[in-house]
C-alpha cells in the first residue's frame, strides 16, 4: 500500500481569469460577446498544488495573497480542491496576484498579469519546520525569494528528510539563473520549460543546456517541451517522453500540471520515465479544459487515459 504523499507547495499563487473566444480587443468603449469567462487557481505553486491534490496527495500551500476579494476567491478555489491553505498569508495593502488570459480562436493566449502579493512574500511568513514536516517540498517561483532564501528553505527541507523541487516562473535569462542558483545544490528536481533551459544556459541544444544545470547542482532536470512532451536528464541518463494527443482547449497551466504529475509519480515510487509519462498525461488532461481545476480527473482517470493512449502523439 502506497502512503499518501504529504507535499508542501511554496511560492507563487495566482488567480487566473480565462476568456475564451477573444477575436480582437473591441475599439473604444465597444463590447464583444465571448464564449466563456472562468476563474481558476494558478501559478507555479498554486496551480501545481491543485493538480497534486487532485491526484491524491495531501497538499499544504505556503505563500501570500492579498487581503481582498480576489484573495478570498483564490483561497476558496484552492480549498475546494482539497488544498490546505492555512499557510497562505493575506497581506493588507497588496492585491492578490492575478492574470487575465484572452484565448483566441486559434489557441493563442496572450496575458495581462499583476504580480501583487507574490512580490511581498518572504520566508518570515512561514514556519520552516512546518513546511518540512511532510515528504516533499516544491518551490514555485524561487526568483521571488532570491537564491539565498530559496537555498535556506530547500536546505532545511533536505535536512529534515524531504525531497525537493523547483519550478521557475520567469523567462530564461542568465542573470536570473545567477540570482537563484544558490538553491540548486539542495534541489532534487528542476522543472523548467525548453525556452528557459536554452535562455539560462545560452546553449542551442536542450540536453547540453540541461547538463549545464546539473553541473550547477540539481540532481535531475525534467524539461517540458510543449507539443513535443518532455526531456528528462540526469548525470547518468537522458530520455524523451512524447506528449499525448488531445483536443486542446487551453494550454494555460500545462507546465504546472506536468510538474504535479511528475512529482506525484516520484512520490509514489514510480521511476523517472513513468513519472514523466504521468506528467505528460496530466498535462493533456489540463490542456483539454480551462484551468488546472477543469474536469473531474484524478490519478485513476489519468492512468486510464494513458493506458488507452499508448501511442502518444
Characterise this structure.
Helices cover 34% and strands 23% of the residues. The mean pLDDT is 93. The radius of gyration is 18 Å and the shape is globular. It starts with 5 loop residues before the first strand and ends in a 5-residue tail after the last helix. It has a nine-stranded mixed sheet with strand order 5-4-1-8-9-10-11-12-13, with helices on both faces. It has helices spanning 46-54, 69-80, 128-131, 142-145, 147-159, 174-180, 194-201, 206-215, 254-267, 272-287, 299-308, and strands at 6-11, 14-20, 36-42, 58-66, 84-91, 98-103, 112-114, 136-140, 163-167, 189-190, 220-224, 230-234, 238-241. β12 and β13 form a beta hairpin. It has eleven helices and 13 strands. The protein is of the alpha/beta class and 313 residues long. It has one domain: UDP-N-acetylmuramoyl-L-alanine:D-glutamate ligase, CATH 3.40.1190.20. Pfam families: PfkB (PF00294). This is Sugar kinase.
| Overall pLDDT level | 93
Helical percent range? 25-40%
Order of strands across the main sheet: 5-4-1-8-9-10-11-12-13
End-to-end distance, in Å? 33 Å
Secondary structure: elements and pairs:
Elements: E1 6-11, E2 14-20, E3 36-42, H1 46-54, E4 58-66, H2 69-80, E5 84-91, E6 98-103, E7 112-114, H3 128-131, E8 136-140, H4 142-145, H5 147-159, E9 163-167, H6 174-180, E10 189-190, H7 194-201, H8 206-215, E11 220-224, E12 230-234, E13 238-241, H9 254-267, H10 272-287, H11 299-308
Parallel strand pairs: 1-4, 1-8, 2-6, 4-5, 8-9, 9-10, 10-11
Antiparallel strand pairs: 2-3, 6-7, 11-12, 12-13
Amino acid at each position: 500500500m502506497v502512503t499518501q504523499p504529504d507535499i508542501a507547495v511554496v511560492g507563487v499563487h495566482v488567480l487566473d481569469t480565462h476568456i475564451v473566444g477573444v477575436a480582437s480587443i473591441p475599439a473604444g468603449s465597444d463590447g464583444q460577446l465571448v464564449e466563456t469567462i472562468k476563474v481558476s487557481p494558478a501559478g507555479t505553486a498554486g496551480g501545481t498544488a491543485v493538480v497534486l491534490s487532485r491526484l491524491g496527495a495531501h497538499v499544504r500551500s505556503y505563500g501570500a495573497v492579498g487581503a481582498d476579494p480576489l484573495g478570498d476567491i483564490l483561497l476558496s478555489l484552492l480549498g475546494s480542491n482539497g488544498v490546505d491553505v492555512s499557510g497562505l498569508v493575506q497581506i493588507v495593502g497588496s492585491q492578490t496576484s492575478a492574470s487575465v488570459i484572452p484565448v483566441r480562436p486559434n489557441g493563442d493566449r496572450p496575458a495581462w498579469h499583476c504580480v501583487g502579493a507574490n512580490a511581498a512574500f518572504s520566508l518570515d511568513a512561514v514556519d520552516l519546520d512546518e513546511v518540512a514536516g511532510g515528504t516533499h517540498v516544491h518551490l514555485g517561483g524561487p526568483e521571488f525569494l532570491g537564491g539565498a532564501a530559496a537555498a535556506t528553505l530547500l536546505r532545511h527541507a533536505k535536512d529534515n528528510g524531504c525531497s525537493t523541487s523547483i519550478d521557475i516562473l520567469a523567462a530564461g535569462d542568465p542573470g536570473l539563473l545567477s540570482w537563484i542558483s544558490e538553491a540548486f545544490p539542495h534541489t532534487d528536481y528542476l522543472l523548467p520549460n525548453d525556452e528557459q533551459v536554452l535562455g539560462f544556459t545560452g546553449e542551442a541544444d536542450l540536453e547540453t543546456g540541461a547538463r549545464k544545470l546539473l553541473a550547477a547542482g540539481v540532481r535531475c532536470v525534467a524539461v517540458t517541451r510543449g507539443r513535443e512532451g518532455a526531456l528528462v536528464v540526469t548525470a547518468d541518463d537522458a530520455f524523451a517522453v512524447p506528449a499525448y494527443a488531445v483536443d486542446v482547449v487551453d494550454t494555460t497551466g500545462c507546465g504546472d500540471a506536468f510538474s504535479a504529475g511528475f512529482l506525484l509519480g516520484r512520490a509514489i515510487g514510480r521511476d523517472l520515465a513513468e513519472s514523466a509519462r504521468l506528467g505528460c498525461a496530466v498535462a493533456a488532461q489540463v490542456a483539454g479544459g480551462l484551468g488546472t481545476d477543469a474536469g473531474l480527473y484524478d490519478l485513476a482517470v489519468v492512468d486510464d487515459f494513458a493506458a488507452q493512449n499508448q501511442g502518444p502523439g
